[in-house]
Amino acid sequence: MAHPFDVQNMVTTDGLIPGHDLAVGHANDRFIAGYAAIPPSRFYGAMERWQASSPAHTLGEYTFIDFGCGKGRAALLASELGFREVVGVELNTKLAEIAQTNVTKWNTQGKAKSPIRIVCGDALELEWPAGPCLVYLYNPFAEPVMRRLANKMKMHFGTNPTNLEIVYQKPEHAEVFQNDFQMVWCEVIPMSEDDRHAEFVASPTDESRAYRLSI
Prior knowledge:
About 30% of the residues lie in helices and about 20% in strands. By secondary structure, the chain is α/β, with parallel strands linked by helices. Helix 4 links the parallel strand 2 and strand 3. The N and C termini lie far apart (about 45 Å). About 45% of the residues are buried.
């Protein structure tokens, strides 16, 4: 049965796909965590908590970047909030195509308040947009890729650390942020009744965390 979010918005973002079924012949295939979309209520809760944590810039100055965006649910949700731009990065071509189809439907319905861009490619090779960025992670990768991504962020934002914010939901590899990052908050964000009934991966005890560079 489709998630109520998909039914209400005429998109396709739900489903569970194991990591080994998402291989595309890339060297990092073995580090894909699999696909499952963030419960909308938990995403909205994390964004509210993040905005309340006094980021250095206004929301409209940030580019929202979802690494491992899958079918694009988080990107769609983020586009309602008024970010400068929303970028979804996805290695799997088929998922990126589904995400782009969802974006087209979303835009046609007039739901996006921000431009949305889907990038099909390796998260570690993304050309960072200028200005402040909010990096969004919903358990997208295994530890080796997460650690390399954290190092990429340190290198890119090290001279201007206030331009980086990180929201990490279901943080199974939070250890990669132990050095040179400050954990700003850590909470278990409750899910709505719809999400509790429709989601098979999200646990009621999953944490959400936010980080900033401390170097």
